[in-house]
Design a protein that fits this description.
The structure holds two protein chains of two kinds. Chain A is of the alpha/beta class. Chain A is 35% helix and 27% strand. In chain A, helix 5 (154-166) packs parallel to helix 6 and helix 6 packs parallel to helix 7 (212-218). Chain B has one domain. The chains are: A alpha/beta, B mainly alpha.
Chain lengths: 257, 273
């Protein structure tokens, strides 16, 4: 699979995280994370389960509050924002959840309409339908429009979850374990979709995963999260070109060699 | 071997542990009181500010009201019938069976209709709200709403609380009428009293304050069922156990509060009689 060729603007950081700390009770998950995501870049955050990868993007999206440090998204410090301002900022960020988080009680159409109707009040029926059809087409699932989430496969649910975030034309995409629990072929399809989204919507993305295929296929830059900090950063090859006893096994135990 | 010397050393940590656990329970209790208060204040802050979710309120009214209709009808009718049947022998001892319709109406309209409706709704609607919001919390659907720029509190909590507050009084009124009908069946079978006479006797002893108190009670019960169910579900801990606890907590806490509110409102009403 060819990686997309959209340019990265290294002079424009859409996310800046500095000295981020987050603890749950006694357990300190993030211990001073520093991060910059540039316009048009796909940054993959790798790490073992429980290292705080998901916590990191939840803090970036304002779902969790940081204990210390600063998080700047699209030039705005999220700690300084009022609820209304945070809500407005979130419209510019797409968040794809690990378990898709589709609304069980609504059809695919209603799921996709939900953020649109609430954030672009005054849109007509025709405009809403066009937007829904456009994003469904982008994820190649137009035929599922009237189905319930329970009738979809795991891969389809992931795609619809991504489509729901795309309907608001986000500038930043945050993917939480996009390939978790999927078969290898569907994983590759999701990886291709992530690259397609990046190209078509000109998004900058943070992809949280421990799937090295996903990291290799989608990431422009890889950051390895260990002990609450990024221990190694760079291209896929650079990150794993090491004798570090805690990073090397991550590569060795995966099927890619 | 003398073992008595060691006794105080063993008891001291146990006592300290008990004290620590008591202190933790007390702190948790006050923390949850604070959280519930904040939740209620947030409801009043957000419920009356635009944008309004009218469609969702109507959908929730349907879920709360129409779907409880069969159960409420059956229970209301049985309560009226059984209450009349059980009261008959006591009144018959004094030759006062003609007072049955008045007794039935006072008992039903003043106490039974709002209380029975609220208890049924706490079990059916409260648990369903707790479980639904709990499962939405666990599966990150609430977080998904939040990151898509929607206010989940307004969409999920405000709509449900408004729906229960509006529908429980309607259901309680309906329960009252259907119970009176149940009572009529018993009276008609035993005394052959006509419907017109029965209805006249039923409404005769009731005053404006009875209807007002019953209405206020139902509104308070409806609000309680909604707010408790939403609080439990919205703040449920992760995992399926959290969903179960939320559903269970919604029913138990709502019922407990309903009984306290019943006693309080009855006491307040009695001052106005």
């Amino acid at each position: 699979m060819e990686k997309r060729k959209a340019p990265i603007d290294f002079s424009n950081a859409v996310i800046r995280v500095h000295g981020l700390k987050k603890a749950f009770g006694e357990y300190e998950v993030l211990r001073g994370v520093n991060l910059e995501l540039f316009q048009g870049e796909n940054l993959v955050v790798l790490g073992r389960s429980g290292t705080g990868k998901s916590v990191l993007i939840k803090v970036i999206s304002g779902l969790l509050k940081a204990d210390a440090g600063t998080v700047e998204v699209l030039g705005q410090d999220i700690d300084q924002l009022t609820n209304r301002q945070l809500q407005a900022l979130r419209i510019r960020i797409g968040f794809s959840f690990q378990n898709s988080a589709l609304y069980d009680s609504m059809t695919v159409r209603k799921n996709l309409e939900f953020p649109l109707v609430r954030n672009r009040r005054g849109l007509g029926r025709k405009e809403i339908d066009t937007a829904v059809e456009r994003v469904l087409d982008a994820v190649s699932l137009s035929h599922t429009i009237n189905q319930m989430p329970s009738e979809l496969s795991g891969g389809q649910r992931k795609r619809i979850g991504i489509a729901r975030t795309l309907i608001l034309n986000p500038e930043i995409m945050l993917y939480d374990e996009p390939t978790a629990g999927l078969d290898p072929i569907t994983c590759i399809e999701i990886n291709e979709l992530i690259n397609e989204v990046q190209e078509r919507y000109k998004t900058s993305s943070i992809i949280i995963t421990h799937d090295l295929t996903c990291a290799k296929q989608t990431g422009d830059r890889i950051a390895m999260l260990l002990d609450g900090k990024f221990q190694r950063e760079g291209s896929f090859e650079h990150v794993f070109d090491t004798d570090n006893a805690r990073i090397k096994p991550f590569f060795d135990y995966n099927f890619i060699k | 071997m003398d073992t008595t010397d060691t006794t105080p050393i063993v008891q001291e940590p146990a006592r300290r542990k008990r004290f620590a656990s008591f202190r933790k329970s007390l702190t948790d209790f006050f923390a949850s009181l604070y959280n519930i208060n904040s939740f209620i204040i947030r409801f009043f802050k957000e419920a009356f500010l635009p944008p309004y979710e009218f469609k969702e309120i109507i959908r929730q009214c349907y879920e709360t009201g129409v779907r409880s209709f069969t159960l409420i009808s059956l229970t209301g009718f049985i309560v009226g019938l059984i209450f009349t049947k059980q009261s008959r022998p006591s009144l018959a001892e004094f030759g006062a069976t003609s007072w049955l319709p008045s007794l039935v109406s006072i008992a039903i309209m003043r106490a039974l209709a709002p209380l029975v409706t609220a208890l049924i709704a706490a079990g059916k609607v409260g648990s369903s709200i707790g479980a639904e919001l709990g499962s939405m919390r666990v599966t990150e659907q609430i977080d998904a709403m939040e990151v898509s720029g929607t206010n989940p509190f307004k969409f999920l909590v405000c709509t449900r609380v408004i729906a229960t507050t509006l529908t429980i009084p309607i259901l309680a009124t309906y329960t009252g009428l259907i119970s009176i009908l149940g009572g009529f069946l018993n009276v008609y079978v035993n005394e052959g009293t006509s419907y017109r006479t029965y209805i006249g006797q039923v409404f005769d002893p009731l005053s404006f304050i009875d209807f007002t108190a019953a209405l206020i009670k139902s509104i308070v019960f409806g609000f309680t069922i909604g707010i408790v169910g939403c609080y439990q579900g919205y703040n449920s801990s992760s995992g399926t156990e959290g969903v179960g606890k939320a559903a269970n907590g919604a029913v138990v806490t709502a019922m407990f509060l309903i009984f306290i509110e019943e006693i309080t409102i009855v006491q307040i009403t009695s001052w106005f009689r």
